[in-house]
Amino acid sequence: MDNVLVSMRGIVKHFGDLVAIRDATLEIRRGEVHALVGENGAGKSTLMNILYGLHPRTAGEVRLRGEPVTFAGPAEAIRAGIGMVHQHFKLAPSFTVAENIILGAEPTLSSGRLDRNKAERETAELSHKFGLDLDPRAIVGSLPVGLRQRVEILKALYRQAEVLILDEPTAVLTPQETAELFLTMRSLAASGRSVVFITHKLREVLAASDRISVMRQGRIVATQDNIGVTAEQIASQMVGRSVLLRVAKGAARPNGEPALDIRGLSVRGDRGALAVENLSMTVRPGEIVGLAGVQGNGQDELVESIAGIRPLVAGRIAICGLAPPASDPMASRRAGLAYVPADRARVGLSLQSPIWANIAIGHLSRFRKGPFLAAAAARRHCRELIEKFDVRGASVYTPAGSLSGGNQQKVQLARELTRDTRLIIAEQPSQGVDIGAIESIHRLLVAKRDEGCAVFVVSADLDELMSLCDRLLVIYRGCIVGDIQAAEADVEEIGRLMGGSGADGEPLRTTVTA
Amino acid sequence: MNGEADAPRRTALLARIGRAVGAPLFAIAVSFVLGGLLMLALGKNPLTVYAALINGSLNGWPNLSVTLQLTTPLIFTGLAVAVAFRSGIWNIGVEGQMLMGALAAGIVGYAAPLPDWAMAPASILAALAGGAAWAAIPALLRAYVGVNELVLCLMLNPIALLLTGYVSARVLKAPGPTNKLPDIVDAAHLTTFTLYSQLNSGIFIALAVCGLGAFFNVGTVRGFEWNLIGLNARFANYGGVRVRRNVIGVMLTSGAIGGLAGAEQVLGVYGAFYDNFSPGYGFDGIAVAMLANSNPIGVLFSSFLFGALNSGSSVLQMELGISKYLVQVLQFIIVLILSARFTLTWPIRRKALVAAAPTAALPTMPPAEHGAKEA
Questions:
Q1: How many beta carbons lie within 10 A of that of residue A56, not counting itself?
Q2: Are B85 and B216 in contact (CB under 8 A)?
């Protein structure tokens, strides 16, 4: 087939003892949007990094336009027409759009100086050609994330990329920005280029791609045309068994006084600016409330202040009717808070410690006899929880760091959900977790809701929030700008709110529901 | 405990012991090989030299008692450093804390108007307080101002030396040519029990403190929390451990144990506070703690090794005409290799976390970070 642009055959990649890719075979055709999906750790990014020359392959063959190629580094891959936009952008924030785009391939005057005019003209032409509106003179650091991504894409196109690899491009985008990105991808494909789109969001795969390849455990297990394929089928291919994507749950019955009651909260971010400003919200027992928002709009700071890790500037946080002193995690926990942090490696777990120690810390009052530690009792308790929460392949002595993401999350949940608690905050509960494990994590949270707990979920995954939560709050620049029943939620509407415009186009201020 | 649970426990325990013992033994072996090459270069037969070292430190009670005498202060200082290291705190100011403890013991030991039975305990308590007080300076500045304790501790060492020198040479100087405090009263002396050395009952205090430390680490809630602070301070804080308060506690404990080393020297070895008495026990304590991987029982072994090397070194000079500093070269190579291992773990850290995380007992991040985070 002469319309095959890239063909990767029998690719194998070892990192030391770890086999990241075992025998992966992938063909990318001219003019297609090719989705590469798989669970975290399936090897998607690694496979594409091999194509982009970042990693040498251990075995296998890569052909570009029919010719066998081996790239010693990204520079060679770029010259051959391969471009990649990574999850974390690699831009110089203090430079202009044009400067970023030409960086490394600068047009020069005969004197050897940078030809700024030409750079800006070419940037403008390029952005016009692909319908990616950008001001060539804008400073990149001042652009919103969606536009920065355009700079990255233009940067690759400026280098004549024929194959454009996008690694998890929608993770930082609002639904509207995502829709625009999909249009861009479509027009790039129409111009004869190939787009490889790495993701694990199934809805996006179905919406945006021509063909879909599924990776599981370092292999491409299926490649199919995107015709009549369902999300369930892809999910099953990803996991290797059938999965239930919708969260099975009954109607919420919120009742009683709010378990979490925040009034007029202001919190500073790490840089000293107010990240949360005069925010009020409540979560009542028996409901799951989700917090939607583009990352970096104050979600982290809000949660940390509830957990007592971040000091308040103003306002009041009441947990189960008690107002624990600010910045005292112990007091927040005693008031009835269970908190599952997003950053498992640095906050939620001690990776070098055995599982039993990671679990014991949430229950020290149970496992102490005066000043002494009842380690044997803690280990016994831990053994029960490992069984109950189905932490696979682990003993109580296994260091938390040697568990997979999903099992680490189960250890966190085992610790937090078994405490005597009325309020659960789960931050990115399914991040880095296998689909199979996501199912059981969602079931656990719904079960706690039905027991009468108030559950507050913060997630970057809007699909997850819409299926898991009973009520959605939308946060924008540290303010709650929307409060919507999940059953009535409309993605378009939430997307507008996440992007900072209310239904009437103006940013909303805080709404309070009591 | 049932049989099914025993197997993983035994495996985990064996793996831990293997990891804990493997690296130190490797470091010792390499340092002896390199030291041997050095001796060859000096035209000496390494086997003769090592035989002399072992002979001079272990053969017969006279030699052994000197070794034990030199081991005792290293147990205290090694333990003091280990307590801090295990919690991720770089207390390298044990030398200064020991000096201040020694000064306090020396003053109380000659001047306190107490009944005889109370003199020794009171002097020891004074040493504990003196060491802790000197450690309180970096502890408080670290906890409340976010100053890096490493630099502070290092700078406080010469200050302690000069301060104790000033007190013993000017303020409370005993009559005579030597810069020292007056002799302590007889009742304040720790019992000595051999003619061959100044070995004294302080070694039993050292063993007891080591045993307590070992139990504290595994058997108490505080010991559990202190270890978690060392492994991941943000996690400890999230889990409800009051990090700032505990970091101060760690520093004071570490300083107090360092002060005990001073008490043993003054009350057991010298009978008075002498200016500049320490050949650097506090600094050797850092090496001892590193070699012991911050484990109190390990401290016993590593301080005995260092004590034996120090004690055997005097023989080298007399019998073979080799500088006694050769022994220090060996000790430095051990530390060098241990720190190399420590640095080498950084690049493979990510992989190591996937495979099998080592139980590192040394501080693995600049400890000022968690202080700042908390503040």
A1: 11
A2: no
Which residues of chain A neighbour B356 with C-beta distances below 8 Å? 399, 402
A106-126 average pLDDT score = 86
A352 and B224 within 8 Å at the Cβ level: the answer is no
Residue of chain A whose alpha carbon sits nearest to that of B219: A373
Partners of residue B237 in chain A, C-beta under 8 Å: 309, 329
DSSP A134-166: --TTSBGGGS-HHHHHHHHHHHHHHTT-SEEEE
Whether residue B235 and residue A348 make contact (CB cut-off 8 A), yes or no, is yes
A403 interfaces chain B, CB cutoff of 8 Å: no
Which strands make up the sheet holding A423-427, listed edge to edge?
A337-340, A423-427, A454-458, A288-292, A471-476, A479-485
Residues B226 and B69 sit within 8 Å (Cβ to Cβ) = no
- Rounded to an integer, what is the distance from CA B240 to the centroid of its chain? 30
Residue with tokens 């590593």: B302
Cβ neighbors of B356 (< 8 A, separation 6 or more) are A399, A402, B15
Per-residue pLDDT of A226-282, as tens digits, reads 888 888 888 888 877 766 667 778 887 888 888 999 999 999 988 778 889 999 999
d(CA A260, CA A281): 8
Please tell me the distance in Å from B2's CA to the nearest CA on chain A.
10
Tell which residue, A269, B231, B135, has the closest CA to residue B143: B135
Q: Return the percentage of chain B with pLDDT > 90, whole number.
A: 53
Reduced to 3 states, what is the DSSP secondary structure of residue B228?
Answer: helix
**Higher-confidence position of B93 and A512:** B93
**Would you call B237 and A329 a contact, using CB atoms and an 8 Å cutoff?**
yes
- The alpha carbon of residue B226 is apart from the nearest alpha carbon of chain A, in Å, by 12
Q: What is the pLDDT of residue A216?
A: 86
Interface with B, mutate which of A327, A332, A346, A353 (most B CBs under 10 A): A353
Paired sense of beta strands A471-476 and A479-485, if any? antiparallel
Sheet holding A260-268, edge to edge: A274-283, A260-268, A314-319
In the three-class reduction of DSSP (H, G, I as helix; E, B as strand; rest coil), residue A196 is classed as strand
